[in-house]
Automatic annotation (TrEMBL), chains A, B:
Keywords in alphabetical order: Aminoacyl-tRNA synthetase, ATP-binding, Cytoplasm, Ligase, Nucleotide-binding, Protein biosynthesis
Enzyme Commission number(s): 6.1.1.15
Protein name in the entry: Proline--tRNA ligase
Subcellular location as annotated: Cytoplasm
Gene coding for it: proS
Organism classification: Bacteria, Pseudomonadati, Pseudomonadota, Betaproteobacteria, Rhodocyclales
């Protein structure tokens, strides 16, 4: 490609509403152009990178035996009503009506459509396993779209869906997709981690996220440097920090703690470690009777250590809280505790509540908690002696750095990550409700065992930049760079020698299949360098008259601080070597 | 590809709601699967053909220097309001609202978005010419979606938009795209014709359609076998069939024509040629005064020869009718003509109307027309003598087969066609209203001269099938066939020799880059042949044990009636030769 025949349009400054570095750099480099909040055009430069990502995904999915198809963007409500997700998907699913007032959704994902296809076209176990995938536009009407392509509303996603005869076979499909994702992200060239994850709105009972490591990531990834344990913090198991409960050593005492409504305040006031305090959190569930009519409210008191935080995802999986909970209102708290928040605790309640203690809290002794009396806490609290054992002991807190790994192989570390892929084992969640069956070897209909597997194609670009950039701009991994090499001729308009050598190198590299751009715009070196460093092309060759007289050109790798002088007659081989290693 | 690892799903019968042959065959072959009216999933088999069409388009667009980008599917109303098309596009443009009640459209086309990009990113004449294209999902909410992918609601379209400095430069871009389309449709291998066409809702002042010739086409294409004249019947010029007006030979006479309300009835009753009669059609325009308030109705009497039909597209371009017209109501007709339709004519009106005569009618003498009196016609009517000259003489009729070609080089023929491509010269229609300018060499801002260029990617599949099929199924042009060659081993499960030779041929062809599928399903020959003839693979090789003993295999081209026996050791070369010629 010649720059004069391409569309380059770089900006010195990003638009003021751009928030994160990948968004700013993609806008400045001219890769994307905003059409509306969370909705972008992908300009020729950006589309080049997207196509490279798509090609890698397609090659690896095909290699794994998956088959590409395309499902509609505008999907009939009837299918979404079959699974109940028409009602449960919430406002992120954009709904619309056609001219005949029929309801449709813009696909946020395609479990319903693909299951409908499977129940029509897969009749026999002999047709299994099957894995269908598409690389297609998705739409999710984010309440607050932001971060450019990182949390856009319209985006490109690869979504795949596997159909199997049995749980065991589905496990193989899951493992194959896991391995395929590993190959894909290895080829793309990002630093990433596969972590166990929550299944969220998609459902099912096993899932892993592929997280690109970046300080700016929205997700916290917990991992063990000494083992292969890795999980999203939503899911990462927090073990008890105390092996067993020590015998009481202190007497229960009601201690004045005026104006100290947080554990940190109390620990500071009493000059004790924060880890001796216990935090009280109050949740509420709205009960219904056998007929589904409202039947009052149950309050749940959750205890975590003062230096820990509640994990709502784990909490939402506890019996009694699975169908939904909310934080209790001040009135509800007052009615049960006779006290305002800040001084709540499990001793001396007005009305009974369900008591859930975190694993660590259940092993604490001589701890401090609110006394249900404003400006007072209990100290020297001990289970059994001062209050009954908790109703439930469970893992309800977030892991913190340095906690023991649940596999017993060391301590945990935490990184920030950007989710770019997600694999789910769905089981028969969709096939059962949509009655999608095949005839098994015994002649009997069975529900498909399913998995689903997503990759955020456009988000990968943002994640790659969040992970790889500097003050000058983007630093693309070679595999998804819009161009692999840029040739910058200095004095294009003036020097025939420069033009000749630049074109010769350009043609030689093209002939070797190198994705090279020749900057024939006749711009000053400073302008060219600034553009290509912003755009992030991995390899740059500068050809000038002075160097040519000595038979040398300048080479700079995008990550390298220094320019190196290389012989003109070896530069092509040098570049091919560098690209071959990439 | 091995059939056992692919997803094949053929049907003996098409669903009962399938109307046309391409739709029936695509459904039966398992290329598409209906999700809702006019909305389809493209199954792996169908997607293979689509990808081949896309690749040809992409290669030729890139060769022409066009640059690929992707514009959003969900487009903000503001841009459509700028051009006024938010109001004029009608219910075919699907509108929707996001969770914040902001208005959006699903893109039916992208002139607004691309012009918005150009006005932001093209600042100088030095950046011109530019041609941006995308291959993207489009949505048009057809009132009655039908014919499968031929008139679907969700479909894939390649749309390109050129930006130029001047009308002359834009003419070059138009010509380049015209030539590119010719290359594209040549490569796809369809029998097609480029015809002059109306510009419709897109606007602009020049356009050509690329029409695939097929008896089932919705369009009528007029062409001259002796010259390169070709136009959609909407636009095809109808010259006067009479060189000049003859002198009157008959007296005007009011003749009883009881119960004869059509020209055909009158001609039969009076035993005269239909070409001596004149048909009267009454249109109405709703007038407005200078303030835009309603100001009554104007009636227009249009006269075409009895054997001709009115062309509403041409009519809509006449002064006074450009802003819209409708057929007059019976009450309006009664008020102006004092007569019911069937006996209307230009003589003896109650109230004045505008009189428009077709070119041929204006040259007629001694003709027959309604007498504005039920059951009576005038015969021997002559212009000037019996009624004043018409207000306007214009080409308002459809061409019929055998009419003189407007270029004077022979007579016209008519074919049916399916529109698969359309090129438009837009001029400054969009750039002016959106104030999209660049700085020209003289330092002054100028509006871009634009063109736009569409290809219906998914419709090409339907058109190819409408043109190429037989009782057994689809006959794909090789360039867009889902597979080029199928190998059908007879006795796959039983004969090691058959398996070995089939696999050897399969690998040999794959090594040569042939897109071959090996039918390793172990089905009977009849089942395999029926599937592959339905699917339409151009070349089939059958390998059986009996043939192998003689060193031969059976070859059948999809269009050939007979099977030929070919030596096993020459079959690969034979296939490569056949594909090379394709």
């Amino acid at each position: 490609m010649r720059a004069s025949q391409f569309h380059l349009f770089t900006l010195k400054e990003a638009p003021s509403d751009a928030e994160v570095v990948s968004q700013k750099l993609m806008l400045r480099a001219g890769m994307i152009r905003k059409a509306a909040a969370g909705i972008y055009s992908y300009m020729p430069l950006g589309l080049r990178s997207i196509r490279k990502v798509e090609t890698i995904i397609r090659e690896e999915m095909d290699r794994a035996g998956a088959m590409e198809l395309t499902m509609p963007l505008v999907q009939p409500a009837e299918l979404w009503q079959e699974t109940g997700r028409w009602d449960t998907m919430g406002p992120e699913m954009l709904r619309l009506q056609d001219r005949h007032d029929r309801d449709f959704a813009l696909q946020p994902t395609s479990e319903e459509v693909v299951t409908d296809i499977a129940r029509q076209e897969i009749k026999s176990y002999r047709q299994l396993p099957k894995n269908f995938y598409q690389i297609q536009t998705k739409f999710r009407d984010e309440r607050r779209p932001r971060f450019g392509v990182m949390r856009g509303r319209e985006f490109t996603m690869k979504d795949a869906y596997s159909f199997d005869r049995s749980k065991e076979a589905a496990g193989h499909s899951y493992a194959l997709m896991f391995a395929t994702y590993t190959r894909i992200f290895d080829r793309i060239g990002l630093d990433y981690r596969a972590v166990a994850a929550d299944t969220g709105a998609i459902g099912g009972d096993r899932s892993h996220e592929f997280q690109v490591i970046a300080d700016t990531g929205e997700d916290a990834i917990v991992y063990c440097p000494d083992s292969d344990y890795a999980a999203n913090i939503e899911l990462a198991e927090a073990v008890s920090l105390l092996e067993h409960r020590a015998e009481p050593g202190q007497a229960l005492e009601k201690t004045p703690t005026p104006g100290s409504a947080t554990c940190a305040d109390v620990a500071a006031l009493l000059q004790v470690p924060l880890a001796t305090t216990v935090k009280s959190l109050v949740l509420a569930t709205d009960d219904v009777d056998a007929k589904g009519e409202p039947a009052g409210v149950t309050l749940w008191l959750l205890l975590v250590r003062g230096d820990h935080s509640l994990n709502e995802i784990k909490t939402s999986k506890l019996d009694g809280l699975k169908t939904g909970f909310r934080f209790a209102t001040e009135a509800e708290i007052d009615e049960h505790f006779g006290c305002k928040p800040g001084y709540l605790g499990p001793i001396g309640l007005q009305k009974p509540v369900k008591l859930i203690a975190d694993r660590t809290v259940a092993h604490m002794s001589d701890f401090i908690c609110g006394a249900n009396d404003a400006d007072f806490h209990f100290t020297g609290v001990n289970w059994g002696r001062d209050l009954p054992e908790p109703d439930v002991v469970a893992d309800i807190r977030n892991v913190v750095e340095g906690n023991p790994s649940p596999d017993g192989k060391g301590t945990l570390a935490i990184q920030r990550g950007i989710e770019v892929g997600h694999v789910f084992y769905l089981g028969d969640k969709y096939s059962k409700v949509m009655n999608a069956t095949f005839l098994d070897e015994d002649g009997k209909p069975k529900h498909f065992e399913m998995g689903c597997y997503g990759i955020g194609v456009t988000r990968i670009l943002g994640a790659a930049i969040e992970q790889n950039h500097d003050a000058r701009g983007i630093i693309w991994p070679t595999a998804i760079a819009p161009f692999e090499v840029v040739i910058c001729p200095v004095g294009w308009g003036k020097s025939q020698a420069v033009r000749d050598e630049a074109q010769k190198l350009y043609e030689a590299l093209r002939a070797q299949g190198v994705d090279v751009i020749l900057d024939d715009r006749d711009e000053r070196p400073g302008v060219m360098f600034a553009d290509w460093e912003l755009i992030g092309v991995p390899h740059r060759v500068t050809i000038g008259e002075r160097g040519l007289k000595e038979g040398v050109v300048e080479y700079q790798g995008r990550r390298e601080a220094e320019v190196s002088k290389l012989a003109l007659d070896t530069i092509a081989a040098h570049l091919l070597g560098a690209l071959g290693q990439a």
